[in-house]
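Structure in, sequence out. Go:
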């Protein structure tokens, strides 16, 4: 059921080998998927190098998710190469460093706009591009990555928490909109993991420590665990699930104190 033989997928958000999106790319590709990876400009070399280690060499394309032209070019190319699409992974997020260290009340209009555009709106833009290709396959599955900072306050997560709240609402609205086309839309809410994005959050190491101390499993999660959960939602095993936020955080979210 979590076999991806004969399936094609697009994975957006790989920056390096620590990226959560990379774990999802590996999990799906090693189970038979033919995938395409996109990179944001400065990560081209990393992504090209990583991709060469996958069993079916992926298509590697540039895509800045703030650019509608980039997004259109990606789906045009995928239509040519794959003739359809079974799954989409959205792992792009960004907030300016200043917004992740200043008091929340100091969030700027531009910082808010940028975080929302890259971290939340881009899911809608990518889903819109994916729909015609998924329709050719009779349906599809979309997974994005979120964090508990959407619902609870974590120090310095600030505008990213607001963007994740919007992202999770996007998941529900897209699930309702695209469900009649047999396209499912879900999110995996990962516990904290040391990645490039996470290191931009001031005091991130202390968040890791709190999880280790208080999560029911008394540890943090790693990217392979998040990759497996995402692969489940992307695969036929998750075919009855849409509009869901699946927590992969060693159980941390259930604790009151
Ligand atoms: P990462 O830095 O490896 O990935 C973030 C990706 O976003 C990078 O590949 C970057 O190139 C991409 N990106 C940023 N701006 C972009 C743009 N304009 N166009 C295209 N791509 C752009 O870090 P990660 O932790 O793997 O993050 C992946 C997702 O997981 C993010 O949505 C993040 O918020 C989420 N997440 C991370 C954690 C964590 O603790 N690391 C926890 C929960 C959720």
């Amino acid at each position: 059921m979590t076999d991806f033989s004969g399936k094609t997928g697009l994975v957006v958000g790989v920056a390096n080998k620590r990226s959560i999106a990379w774990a999802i790319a590996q999990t799906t590709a090693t189970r038979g998927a033919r995938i395409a990876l996109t990179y944001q400009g400065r990560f081209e070399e990393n992504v090209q190098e990583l991709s060469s280690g996958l069993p079916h060499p992926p298509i590697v394309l540039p895509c800045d998710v703030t650019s509608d032209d980039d997004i259109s070019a990606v789906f045009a190319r995928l239509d040519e190469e794959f003739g359809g699409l079974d799954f989409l992974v959205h792992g792009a997020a960004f907030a300016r460093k200043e917004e992740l260290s200043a008091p929340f009340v100091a969030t700027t209009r531009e910082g808010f706009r940028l975080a929302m555009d890259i971290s939340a709106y881009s899911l809608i833009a990518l889903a819109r591009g994916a729909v015609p290709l998924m329709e050719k396959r009779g349906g599809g599955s979309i997974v994005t990555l979120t964090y508990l900072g959407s619902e609870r306050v974590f120090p310095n997560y600030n505008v990213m928490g607001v963007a994740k709240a919007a992202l999770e609402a996007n998941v529900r609205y897209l699930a309702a909109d695209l469900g009649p086309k047999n396209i499912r839309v879900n999110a995996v809410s990962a516990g904290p993991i040391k990645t490039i994005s996470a290191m931009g959050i001031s005091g991130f190491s202390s968040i890791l420590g709190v999880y280790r101390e208080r999560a029911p499993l008394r540890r943090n999660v790693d990217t392979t665990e998040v990759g497996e959960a995402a692969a489940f939602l992307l695969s036929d095993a998750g075919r009855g699930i849409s509009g869901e936020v699946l927590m992969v955080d060693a159980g941390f979210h259930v604790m009151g104190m």
